[in-house]
DNA sequence: CCGAGTTGTTGAGCCAGATCAAGGCAAAAC
DNA sequence: GTTTTGCCTTGATCTGGCTCAACAACTCGG
């Protein structure tokens, strides 16, 4: 018997298996627009869907061999790198429709850990198969280039944040970014649940958890937001925006 | 007359024009290994070579439409993003053989400025042509995915540095990284010339220029390095390495 | 060779955020 | 239902790196 018997996985996956990319509501997040039905079908044939990952479990870990990219179908992930001497840096938070594992293409090994922050489900995109298919579907090829490039741009934004911004600005930018991403997915942009701890937020933003906590409290005192544990309500988004773009003055 | 008459450019480029990718000593840095002569020839046909950029000039600027990636053939560049409110973050330093402009694929516009830090020369790789060719040459397609992925991994490393490390560790890591990259290109790994100002180093590392200057002086006092303006000599690389990986203790 | 602008060094003092410490709360475990 | 555990908040104190400031050294055009 292999460590992972395929039978239960199949069974769990079955109800989702019919939910192919072609009929998936996240299609426009994961895949390029304008695929023909045949092209769509070819994608469907490669992508295996509905792989469940429990809260706290790793989708993959640094050092593991790379085979597939993963699309978050449901749930929430963090990715993080760990330095030789054990310091963790959260490199991103990933939600529905995000494609993760892009860093692993460079070496054929994953370079970061990817941990589910709530019970989640991913679709698996075997990368070399996708590459082959991408040679027949130019827009698919271009899509993957675009997705990787977008990740580079995002990382540059984080570098700007880490290199130049003060704690308040970082937190404000973080909240606005989350808000925007929830909105894009049809959730409330003004009220949402943080799936990560203060420490994970701090790691992502280059701050200690105490600073994160204090800053959130301060924002609440100022009437910008309402905090209740992990439930965040944005009361005055403009004030936050103002903080982010005007703070040096 | 257009602002940039093509004639002098052609003339300057002429002596390099015959220096095709196929016979370029940087081949193994820019292109995948194992291309057949015909494939190599196809690449040669797309890449235009020997475009000179003077020190201080921009290869491209944020907001400009994206057409091509550039390979540094000679010289040294910085890339940087600027926030709405004018703060600059240097996102990378690029030397011989590096491919730049990858961020622009995501939006078809450049998202950062790319400035030559010394008189330089680049090869231009028209991206959509390269994409088309990549559909016929799997290893070329894969190569571009790899290059982009490598940039993502590099950015994650910088995030770790910016989020977790102290000034001394950042500077040490920076010096070691430069050293390693020079070594890879056949230059001395223990003695090199910085092409960037203290301020640019600081921007990259999330420090102020005074801190960069002080830290270099301190390393010199400790006998780890020798500094003479922009000339750096690494005396005790192990000491630097020890700083990077052991500092929390 | 001079003078202006740029770049780099160094010092003094300050402050944002880290660190250390204590306690509260909610959900899970027993 | 009590204990445990993990997570969060808040306070007090400390400090690394920033700020402000002066000056030194180098570069480059004239």
UniProtKB/TrEMBL annotation, chains A, B:
NCBIfam families: PRK11161.1. SMART domains: cNMP, HTH_CRP. Keywords: DNA-binding, Transcription, Transcription regulation. It holds the Pfam family cNMP_binding. The keyword Plastid does not apply. Residues 165-238 form the HTH crp-type domain. This is Transcriptional regulator. It comes from Chitiniphilus shinanonensis.
């Amino acid at each position: 018997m292999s460590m992972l018997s395929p039978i239960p996985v199949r069974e769990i996956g079955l109800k989702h298996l019919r939910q192919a990319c072609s009929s998936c509501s996240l299609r426009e997040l994961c895949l390029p627009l304008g695929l023909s039905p045949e092209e769509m079908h070819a994608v469907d044939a490669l992508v295996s869907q509905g792989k469940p990952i429990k809260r706290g479990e790793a989708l993959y870990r640094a050092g593991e061999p790379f085979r597939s990219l993963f699309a978050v179908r449901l749930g929430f992930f963090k990715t993080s790198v760990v330095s030789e001497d054990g310091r963790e840096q959260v490199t991103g938070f990933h939600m529905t429709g995000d494609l993760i594992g892009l860093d692993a293409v460079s070496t054929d090994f994953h370079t970061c850990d990817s941990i589910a922050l709530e019970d989640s489900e991913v679709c698996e995109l075997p990368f070399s198969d996708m590459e082959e298919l991408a040679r027949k579907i130019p827009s698919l090829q271009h899509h993957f280039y675009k997705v990787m490039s977008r990740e580079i741009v995002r990382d540059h934004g984080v570098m700007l944040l880490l290199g130049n911004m003060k704690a308040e600005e970082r937190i404000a930018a973080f909240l606005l970014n989350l808000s925007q991403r929830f909105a894009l997915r049809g959730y409330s942009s003004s009220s949402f649940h943080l799936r990560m701890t203060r420490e994970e937020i701090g790691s992502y933003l280059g701050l200690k958890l105490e600073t994160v906590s204090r800053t959130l409290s301060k924002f609440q005192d100022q009437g910008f937001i309402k905090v209740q544990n992990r439930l965040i309500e944005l009361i005055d988004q403009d004030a936050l925006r103002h903080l982010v773009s005007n703070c040096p003055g």
